[in-house]
Design brief:
Keywords: Signal. Belongs to the transglycosylase Slt family. InterPro entries: Lysozyme-like_dom_sf, Transglycosylase_SLT_dom_1. There is one protein chain. The protein is mainly alpha-helical and about 300 residues long. It has three domains: about 40 residues; about 190 residues, Orthogonal Bundle (Lysozyme), CATH 1.10.530.10; about 50 residues. It has twelve helices and four strands; from the N terminus they run ααββααααααααβααβ. The strands form two sheets. A two-stranded antiparallel ribbon has the order 1-2. Strands 3-4 form a two-stranded antiparallel ribbon. β1 and β2 form a beta hairpin. The N terminus is likely disordered.
Length: about 300
């Protein structure tokens, strides 16, 4: 009997310990938040919302192939968790720069998600020669007023590149007639989309049979829009402090050649690395500026970097 009592007492003690540990896991602390993220992992089939749209243009989700393609992109982008969390983090940093420029050109706000799928909101480099967050080709950049050379490449200048993207999208919308087709044309070109529409005798993106990349393009944009707009719905857990934010900067006007960016940076209490982080369009350790052009260089405010 004593043995039974000891066993029961031991089981009771274990139960109390388990309850204590469970209570600690639910406590809203940073440490337990991290444990919860690890221990609560599950994979679920997703319900495709019935009213998805791009730029106010509805997706025909009652069509079986459209539904399945949308379901695929939601699944792929929901369960690529590391990439998804990075998108949330970077969006907090870069969307406030992109959004007002889209609004200035009367481009629907949904196009900020096009930048997400183009580059992951990084200064990406494509094998074809596209560069920057908006993946602009050299000719397109030059045609729209960007300086593109080995010394200065303004495709890496987020504000200026966003303006070029807006001009391109407005032209596409004017030629093709819808924002959805304009988005597809950002991937395949205006002439490419026009040719597909003509050859297949249709007028809608969702009626086109396209190659893998362009065929997924709008679906990927809408999937990222849906996920980034509804993080909790798709299982993404984070706090505001987990997201990235912009470092405040001030502008320095330069109209002359700069022979040494290391020395230039040190004049403002930063180093070469920090200067290039905030001005990725400066491609070399110097600024040639033989024409005396007026450049604006961003300098972070004092105190945001511990520079020795």
């Amino acid at each position: 009997m004593k043995t039974v009592q000891k066993i029961l007492a031991f089981v009771g003690l274990l139960s109390l310990c388990a309850l204590f540990v469970y209570a600690l896991q639910d406590a809203p602390t940073d440490e337990n938040f991290e444990k919860k993220l690890i221990n609560d992992y599950n994979v679920y089939a997703l319900q495709v919302p019935s009213n998805l749209d791009f730029a106010g243009e509805a997706m025909p989700l009652k069509s079986p192939d459209i539904y399945e393609r949308m379901d695929k992109e939601l699944l792929v982008n929901t369960y690529w968790q590391s990439n998804g969390l990075l998108m949330f983090k970077r969006a907090k940093k870069y969307f406030p720069i992109i959004e007002p420029i889209l609004a200035k050109y009367n481009i629907p706000d949904d196009f900020k998600y096009l930048a997400v799928i183009e580059s992951g909101l990084t200064n990406a480099v494509s094998p074809a020669g596209a560069r920057g967050v908006w993946q602009i080709m050299p000719a397109t950049g030059r045609e729209n007023g960007l300086e593109v050379n080995d010394n200065v490449d303004e495709r890496y200048h987020l504000e200026k590149a966003t303006e070029v993207a807006c001009k391109y999208l407005l032209k596409s919308k004017d030629e093709l007639g819808s924002w959805t087709l304009a988005a597809a044309a950002y991937n395949a070109g205006n002439s490419g989309i026009s040719r597909y529409l003509r050859e297949q005798n249709v007028s809608n993106y969702y009626d086109l049979l396209l190659g893998e990349e362009t065929g997924r393009y709008v679906f990927r944009i809408v999937a990222l829009k849906e996920i980034l707009t509804n993080p909790a719905k798709y299982g993404f857990n984070f706090r505001e402090k987990d997201l990235y934010s912009n470092v405040p900067t001030y502008k320095v006007e330069v109209k002359t050649e700069i022979t040494d960016f290391t020395k230039f940076a040190e004049q403002y209490g930063i180093n070469y690395k920090i200067l290039k982080i905030h001005n990725p369009w400066l491609r070399e350790p110097r600024l040639n500026n033989k024409s005396g052009k007026n450049y604006t260089i961003e300098i972070p405010e004092i105190g945001y970097y511990n520079v020795r």
